[in-house]
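My current task is to audit a protein record that another person submitted. Alongside the sequence sits a line of tokens, each denoting a local backbone shape. Please read both lines and tell me whether the tokens look consistent with the sequence. Do not assume that whoever made the record got everything right. Thanks in advance; the entry in question is below.
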Amino acid sequence: MASKKPAEAPNEPPRVGDTLAALRQAHALSLDELSRMAGVSKSMLSQIERAQANPTVAVVWRLANALGVPIAELLGAAPVAPAAPAITLVRTQATPSLRSPDGLCELRILGPVEMAGQFEWYELRLLPGGVLDSQPHESGTREHLTVASGSMELQVADAIQKLKLSETARYPADCNHAIRNNGKTAASAWLVVIHPI
């Protein structure tokens, strides 16, 4: 029968090196800077991060205060979440889109999913003859349409408005409304939908 790997000794001191290094990097601090803030020598910090030394409770307390975290987090009681990136990039091929059955209308969904139902924005592309025909949205919803290329025709209930390049139309979207490309070339626009709060 194969022998089992012995479990770690229950009284082994917590290893805070990885957690300390992650927290220091998340705060964008050098060893020198953290050393000055915590009153702990740079060589001691380096040894702690490389798991060559285990700090005393007093040192852990100083480090936790300098980093603004609970002492339990530094001792590994809670995982350290990675810092959120300053910029989130959505690649073109990762942008979801909706296409009409005839293929003449495409809506690229530019707004984040978590904002749907509050504030949405799209890139609308219409080939000649293409139409985005919409049923009424909830009461109080408004849309803003800015033509980026070509020209479009907007119908809101019984009102009709032609839009040229760079023109913007603002209108209620809680009634039947449609956006058409009656021209001979492709057209595109930015469409913003604002729902009532």
Remarks:
- Residues 120 and 193 are 5 Å apart (CA to CA).
